[in-house]
């Protein structure tokens, strides 16, 4: 198992799954900054055609703008992750403000899909 997650992040979010055990040769396909029309739809169509699942790190703002795409991601069995509300620049944003954006991102996604877990 190879872990590339910074230790700080793993300590800040102990309830988040950072690693999975096992030695199988697998890759995890991840897609950031959506959902957005055209690109997310194209990705979902391709994953469906190849019978693959992916992990979509979504921005809360875009989830609110395109709830139908967020629902499609989940309906088709993919995983979703919180990628903040509107993608603040981590180098230019205070930790408190950044963490508020992370919380707002998670809350926005839960507004659209109330069955999402509370972490992040
Ligand atoms: Zn991003």
Topology:
Blueprint (H helix, E strand, L loop, with lengths): L6 H6 L17 E5 L4 H11 L5 E4 L1 H6 L1 H9 L3 E4 L12 H18 L8
Parallel strand pairs: 1-2, 2-3
What does this structure look like?
With 120 residues, the chain is of the alpha/beta class. The protein has a single domain (29-112), classed as TIM Barrel (Alpha-Beta Barrel). The chain is 42% helix and 11% strand. The protein has five helices and three strands. Strands 1-2-3 form a three-stranded parallel sheet. The model has no long low-confidence stretch (mean pLDDT 90). The chain binds zinc ion.
User: SSE string, helix = H, strand = E?
Assistant: HEHEHHEH
How far do the termini sit from each other? Answer: 24 Å
Cofactors, ions and other ligands in the entry: zinc ion
What's the CATH C level?
Alpha Beta
Strand content: 5-15%
Low-confidence stretches: none
What is the 3D shape? globular
Class of secondary structure makeup: alpha/beta
Radius of gyration: 15 Å
CATH superfamily: Glycoside hydrolase/deacetylase
- Which fold name fills CATH's third level, the topology? TIM Barrel
> Overall pLDDT, averaged?
90
């Amino acid at each position: 198992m190879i872990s590339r997650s910074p230790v700080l992040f793993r300590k800040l979010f102990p309830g988040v799954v950072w690693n999975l055990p096992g030695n199988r040769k697998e890759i995890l396909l991840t897609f950031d900054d959506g959902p957005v029309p055209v690109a997310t739809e194209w990705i979902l169509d391709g994953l469906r055609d190849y019978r693959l699942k992916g992990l979509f790190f979504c921005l809360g703002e875009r989830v609110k703008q395109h709830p139908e795409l967020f629902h499609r991601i989940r309906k088709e069995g993919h995983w979703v992750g919180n990628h903040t509300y509107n993608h603040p620049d981590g180098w230019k944003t205070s930790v408190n403000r950044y963490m508020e954006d992370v919380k707002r991102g998670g809350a926005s996604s839960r507004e659209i899909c109330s069955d999402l877990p509370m972490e992040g």
